[in-house]
Specification:
- Helix 7 packs across helix 8.
- The protein is built from 18 helices and 14 strands.
- The chain folds into three domains: 160 residues, no CATH class; 97 residues, no CATH class; 77 residues, no CATH class.
- It is an alpha+beta fold and 401 residues long.
- It has a five-stranded mixed β-sheet with strand order 10-11-12-13-14. The protein has a three-stranded mixed β-sheet with strand order 1-8-9. It has a three-stranded antiparallel β-sheet with strand order 2-4-3.
Length: 401
């Protein structure tokens, strides 16, 4: 029996570039479509704007912020893997409610560390989470500025339900924070915020004085979080469309969920998948995407400047984007990933920006020599990026490969 349709790495890269809106310059009216492919991570703050600029270089920064904070056609909330993500508000059921786990589908990667606090409190996770969920209801009527203040506010509200002995432990200094600023209760809240977000209990509001704000989905959007029974299937489709060919294990890693939850989501679309062979391994693709993958053309713009944590870079099969394992460690770090640039869908180097007094100095470090024409294109893109950020490009340097 055949193990699947044979495909090539070039086909996959070209297909993904098109899916991620990186094969050419798209018009600003593609904003919701581009952000809705798989959502856009927004750490560090502003990363989602860099990602959208890479796809729609003609869109002003203010238009992006207006869509997020005034028009509210886009929403920021903790989503897959617990990261702050920006996605179309109309698809909130997919990017939030679909992530809510069913009984027996824990733990999640973003709550595993809570064990120390729970052991100290002698409190089961289910009870702690329910406590924080009830406390989070206060966000229906208020907005809180800064993540630190959010943790404190919800921890104080939750403490009102605790008996004196347990409350004393709840208010004790956190074992996660040597500075002593956080309490044990604040730490529990911090871990619980992600699953609370999936219920619409907390989303990001408009930034104020450089800090994020937080409130309830209903208060920010003006209507309750929609509950769509088809949302889990749509979430799995988005993953497969953006990162296919893929496996159920890849879905679990992308979501940061348990294998049990990933299997449930995968099962919702199992009948829509076809096996393919890539590099001697079997993976799966949405059947509706196979013709596009087989017929895709080379990108109209083979070079692209991407920010750290761009959605395109979130693929699990990193060797497809960068075969050299030593270079992979330079790109996908434990913390502080660098910006990268692509050549034909592969990571071809990294770049950094240094700003001072309204001016930017951009340095590109290729992994292999760049042709003069490539240097010219990248310099133009660097200048466009500086202008997008309201900066004047003072200098651009291309380091030796």
């Amino acid at each position: 029996m055949a193990k699947g349709v044979p495909i090539t790495a070039d086909q996959v890269r070209q297909y993904r570039l098109a899916v991620h809106h990186l094969d050419r310059a798209y018009p600003p009216d593609e904003l919701l479509a581009a952000a809705g492919v798989c959502g856009v991570q927004n750490t560090p703050p502003g990363a989602w704007e860099t990602a959208m600029h890479a796809r729609m270089p003609g869109i002003p920064q203010q238009a992006l912020r207006s869509a997020l904070e005034q028009q509210k056609t886009l929403l920021q909330a903790w989503s897959w893997r617990g990261v702050p993500a920006v996605f179309p508000t109309a698809e909130s059921a997919t990017f939030l409610a679909a992530l809510a786990a069913q009984p027996g589908e824990e733990p999640w990667i973003y709550t595993r560390g809570v064990t120390l606090a729970l052991d100290f409190l002698g409190l089961p996770w289910d009870e702690a989470l329910a406590l924080v969920r009830r406390a989070a209801r206060l966000l229906d009527g208020c907005t809180v500025q800064s993540k630190e203040e959010l943790d404190r506010t919800l921890a104080a509200a939750a403490a009102q339900e605790l008996p004196p002995a347990l409350r004393q432990k709840w208010d004790a200094p956190s074992m996660y924070d040597p500075s002593g600023r956080q309490t044990v209760g604040g730490a529990v809240v911090s871990f619980a915020l992600r699953p609370c977000a999936y219920l619409g209990l907390v989303v990001f509001g408009a930034r104020q004085a450089g800090s994020p704000t937080f409130t309830a989905y209903t208060r920010w959007v003006g209507r309750p979080l929609p509950l769509d029974p088809a949302a889990p299937a749509w979430l799995a489709r988005k993953f497969l469309h953006a990162y296919g060919p893929a496996t159920v294990g890849g879905l679990a890693v992308w979501l940061g969920c348990s294998p049990q939850q990933a299997k449930r989501l995968w099962g919702a679309v199992a009948g829509e998948l076809v096996p393919v062979q890539l590099g001697g391994k079997t993976a799966y693709l949405l059947a509706q995407d196979l013709p596009a993958l087989q017929q895709i053309a080379p990108p109209a713009q083979p070079l692209a400047l991407l920010g750290a944590h761009d959605p395109y870079l979130d693929a699990r099969d990193r060797a497809l984007l960068l075969p050299d394992t030593a270079l992979q460690r330079q790109v996908w770090r434990t913390v502080a990933n660098p910006n990268v640039f692509l050549r034909g869908g592969q990571v071809a180097g990294v770049w950094k920006v240094k700003t001072a007094r309204g001016k930017a100095q951009i340095t590109l470090t290729p992994f292999a020599p760049l042709a003069p024409a490539e240097q010219s294109v990248l310099a133009q893109k660097a200048e466009a990026y500086a202008a997008f950020r309201g900066l004047t490009l003072d200098a651009i340097k291309i380091a030796e490969a």
